[in-house]
C-alpha cells in the first residue's frame, strides 16, 4: 500500500513539475493518475496509448482493440484527420472502474492542455462508446481547452455530435436526413454545462436522442460537415460560440 501511493504521488509530482497539470487535479481525477502511472492502478499496456486492467480476458482485449481501430477510422473519416491521440485506460471489472473514478457511466473523457484520457468501463468497450468518446477528444483538441472551459461548445452540442458520428442506434435511426434519423424531437434549452448534463443524462438517457436530433438540424441548416469544420475553427480563434 505504501509503495503504491508512493508511486502515484511520484508520477503526479513529475507531471505537476513539468507544468502540464496541477497536482490537485490529478489526485482528484484518478483516471488521469492511472494514465500517468498505469501499473500503480493495476493496468498493463495493450498497445501504444492503450492500457487495460491486468486481468482483462483475451476476448475483451480483442474487442477493445477492434473498437479503438474502428473508432479512429470513424473520426478520421468525419473530421479528415486526427488532432490528438488519447490515452485509454480500460477496465474489465466494476471494481477497477470505481478505482479510476467511474460512477456508473460507461465511459468518460478528460481533456487538458496537450492531451486527453478516455476511461472505459467494462460496459464501454464497444465501437459505439469508444467512437463517442473519441469525438469529444477531437472537438476538445480543435477548439482548445480555454474555449472548452468557457463553454464555447455547449455540452448538448458536444454530446449530440458524438451520438451522430458514433451512429448510436439507441438514440438515432439510419437515414439521410434529420427527419428520418430523429427518434426524439429537437429541443431548445438543453444543458450547456457538462456538470448539468451528467446528472440529467443519468436520469433521462433519451436526452442524448434529443441532443442528436438538435445537432442534426443544426448541421442541415449550416452546411453540414463543412460548416461544422468552419465553425470549430472560428471557435478556436475566439470568434464565435456554438451553435
Strand content: 5-15%
Task: Report the radius of gyration as a whole number of Å.
Answer: 18 Å
Relative helix content: 40-55%
Shape: globular
| Strand line-up in the sheet with most strands | 1-2-3-5-4
End-to-end separation: 48 Å
What count of helical segments does DSSP give?
12
Can you write the helix and strand succession as a string? Answer: HHHEEHEHEEHHHHHHH
Number of strands: 5
Counting helices, strands and paired strands, the structural category is: alpha/beta
Any low-confidence stretches, pLDDT <50, length ≥5?
Answer: 1-19
The overall average pLDDT, rounded, is 90
The main sheet comes to:
5 strands, mixed
Question: What's this, in brief?
Answer:
With 243 residues, this protein is of the alpha/beta class. Helix content is 54%, strand content 10%.
Written description of the protein model:
This protein has a domain at 150-243. It is globular. The protein is built from 12 helices and 5 strands. β4 and β5 form a beta hairpin. By secondary structure, the protein is α/β, with parallel strands linked by helices. α6 (127-143) packs across α8 (155-165), α8 packs across α11 and α11 (207-221) packs across α12. Strands 1-2-3-5-4 form a 5-stranded mixed sheet, sandwiched between helices. Mean pLDDT is 90; it is low at 1-19.
